[in-house]
Design a protein that fits this description.
By secondary structure, the chain is mainly α. The chain folds into 2 domains: about 35-435, no CATH class; about 480-605, Serine Threonine Protein Phosphatase 5, Tetratricopeptide repeat (Alpha Horseshoe). About 65% of the residues lie in helices and about 0% in strands. Helix 5 (about 105-120) crosses helix 6 and helix 6 (about 120-150) packs parallel to helix 9. The protein starts with a helix and ends in a 19-residue tail after the last helix. The model is unreliable at about 1-10, about 20-30 and about 620-625 (pLDDT under 50).
Length: about 625
């Protein structure tokens, strides 16, 4: 498309409601227009820099949730588990009775495909996550170009989005890939909606594609439900319907916008029905705080996100939300004042420019779902992945209009070229620094431990990491320091009991694992290791009962059936033992110990002899729960 074709397209967009205001004064008569070739080269360079900025992540390990959702996730090992992706929480593989809020079957499918291709090689998983972010960055250019109708502004927006350091968590951490997947599907759906709006001849096909992509987006992450709100608000902004009264105008515009949004609302209704059936409710609150306290906490949460958008320095993996229980100046009034001032500024921009109003929609609406702190009881940088699109477009508009002096580089304003270079260098450097702590569990929890806001939780996580690396005595000491402050924490009691079990201090292991089981009776590993501890203490009946309970909670867990098979052998019940060993081999064909035990029982049965009982139970250690 040459420059003349591009101008004709912009004219067509304005005829269909996507324009309608004076073009932005980004280029004077002496400024060379951006040709297709120039745009292609610039966009290619931006995408290349984005990829190279995250290249180091290909050597990162599995950290935090990765080790559970990937390494310990039995649902990824066979297609027979595919139906379960659609019938429960994303964590149901670990504790099936848990009623969570994360209905994300497409995310599990994404993990399953990568498991087939890459196995447990982290580089492949990181490579796909980085590619997903690069693809989203490319779509951000397409979206910005359609909404802003300015190539320079769109390029600046793409550069800022692709290299914004706040995306480190969503790109450098494999489990954070839900954000790029969601953005990829959501932006593509919106772009097809725009195509249908401007090309009526193919409107039905574009609408069908848009709706399918929107459905997939909802199955990737629940915050996709903001798309109908974005489309509805966009239709109101573009609508120029006349009427005899202001109320009548708004009613007409609202009804027209609703008619466009209705198919998307139908998809939302279908998704919510699936979600309610899978999670046994639309949302399962994780906090007991009152609604009033959540409202009082909103200003500090908004101030947190404003800060991280404007100054993404010193980011971390964990940020505790301290619920505000009463009005005060520091935590409520001052953040409220800042939020009001920011909202007023955005309102002025929206009134003056329709393009700015469209960008503001992508900034404001995607942040609304995570303000439901009863469900999303944490703040995270990854929650800014979608809102940063609108932020990048607003900044891109400003930089695209910036001109000073007559100096030119390649026919473009020198100040814009210089700013692009400075932004690229500065942001790429920040990305490299902010992603570094995702490299290993040690760097991850060391960073968390250095942030005072989450010191106790991070210290517990760091102790878990030390235990995984075999430094059990150091881990026990750290947990003993943390326990007095968190005596009712399942994580602390379980990990402390597990560490004592590994060091052979079985009475202490029994005490803490029993306490963990009382705190939360839905997590199977607690009963599994409590059973093994009971065996070491000579109580085989108690061991059998606890392992059976673990299997009741999670019947497809690796090693559970093997241990129960060993117990059955110890009790002399060889037929039951053989069944358990075969079930273990069905779940984990690589379990040589289960195969050996089954073969010995079968050989003994054939010869009329008893199979030998193993002197020890070779159960591999499991990752500590962070």
């Amino acid at each position: 498309m040459n420059e003349l074709d591009y101008e004709r397209r912009e004219l067509a967009l304005r005829r269909n409601g996507l324009g309608g205001e004076t073009p932005l004064p980004t280029a004077g008569p002496s400024v060379a227009p951006l040709s297709d070739r120039t745009v292609g080269v610039a966009l290619g360079l931006i995408l290349a820099v984005v990829f190279l900025s995250y290249l180091d992540t290909l050597w990162f390990q599995f950290v935090l949730d990765d080790r559970f959702q990937i390494v310990d996730n039995t649902w990824l090992r066979s297609w027979r588990y595919l139906p379960r992706y659609f019938t429960g929480d994303v964590w149901s593989f670990l504790h099936p009775t848990f009623r969570g809020n994360l209905y994300r079957p497409l995310f599990l499918l994404w993990l399953r495909i990568q498991y087939i291709v890459f196995g447990l090689n982290p580089w492949g998983w990181h490579f796909c996550t980085v590619l997903a972010h690069v693809a989203v960055t490319a779509l951000v250019y397409c979206l910005s170009l359609r909404l802003l109708q300015d190539r320079r502004a769109a390029l600046f927006a793409t550069l800022i989005f692709g290299l914004h350091p706040v995306h480190a968590e969503a790109v450098a951490w494999i489990s954070g890939v839900t954000e790029p997947i969601l953005a990829l599907l959501l932006i593509a759906s919106f772009l097809y909606y725009l195509h249908g709006r401007t090309e009526p001849f193919y409107a039905r096909g574009y609408l069908a594609a848009s709706l399918v992509l929107y459905l997939l987006a909802t199955l990737a992450k629940e915050t996709a439900l903001v798309l109908p709100m974005i489309i509805f608000a966009s239709e109101l902004i573009w609508s120029g319907t006349a009427g005899t009264s202001r109320l009548r105008v708004w009613l007409h515009r609202g009804w027209a916008a609703f008619a466009v949004t209705a198919p998307y609302l139908a998809i939302s209704g279908a998704y919510m029905g699936l979600r309610v059936m899978a999670l046994h409710g639309f949302q399962n609150p994780r906090e007991t705080h009152r609604f009033f306290e959540m409202v009082l906490t909103w200003p500090s949460v908004l101030w947190f996100y404003i800060q991280h958008l404007l100054w993404p320095v010193g980011l971390g993996p964990f940020y505790d939300v301290d619920y505000i229980t009463h009005l005060d100046v520091r935590n409520v009034l001052l953040p409220t004042l800042i939020a009001v001032l920011v909202a007023a500024g955005l309102w002025v921009l929206a009134v003056r420019s329709r393009r700015a109003a469209l960008a503001i929609l992508w900034l404001i609406l995607p942040i609304l779902p995570v303000l439901n702190l009863i469900v999303f009881n944490f703040v995270h940088d990854r929650y800014l992945y979608l809102p940063s699109i609108g932020f990048a477009m607003l900044v891109g508009m400003g930089l695209g209009r910036l001109q000073a002096g007559s100096a030119r580089i390649l026919g473009q304003p020198a100040i814009q070229v210089a700013l692009a270079a400075v932004l690229t260098l500065g942001l790429a450097t920040r990305v490299s620094e902010e992603t570094a702590y995702f490299a290993t569990s040690k760097t991850f929890f060391t960073r968390a431990n250095s942030m005072s806001a989450t010191r106790e939780a991070a210290k517990a996580n760091l102790a878990g990491m030390m235990g995984e690396q075999g430094h059990l005595e150091e881990a026990i000491k750290m947990y003993e320091d943390v326990w007095p402050t968190q005596p009712n924490s399942w994580q602390v009691n379980y990990n402390l009991g597990y560490a004592y079990y590994l060091t052979g201090k079985f009475p202490e292991a029994d005490r803490y694992l029993s306490r963990a089981a009382q705190i939360d009776a839905t997590l199977p590993d607690t009963f599994f290791y409590l059973g093994l501890t009971k065996l070491k203490l000579g109580d085989i009946d108690a061991e059998a009962g606890n392992v059976q309970r673990a299997l009741t909670i999670r019947p497809d867990a690796v090693n559970y059936h093997f241990v129960l098979g060993v117990i059955c052998k110890l009790q002399g019940n060889l037929p039951a033992a053989l069944i358990e060993f075969h079930q273990e081999m069905d779940l984990n064909p690589d379990n040589a110990a289960a195969r050996q035990q089954a073969e010995e029982i079968e050989a003994g049965q054939a010869a009329g002899q008893k199979a030998p009982i193993p002197g020890s139970i070779p159960v591999p250690s499991r990752a500590a729960a962070h």
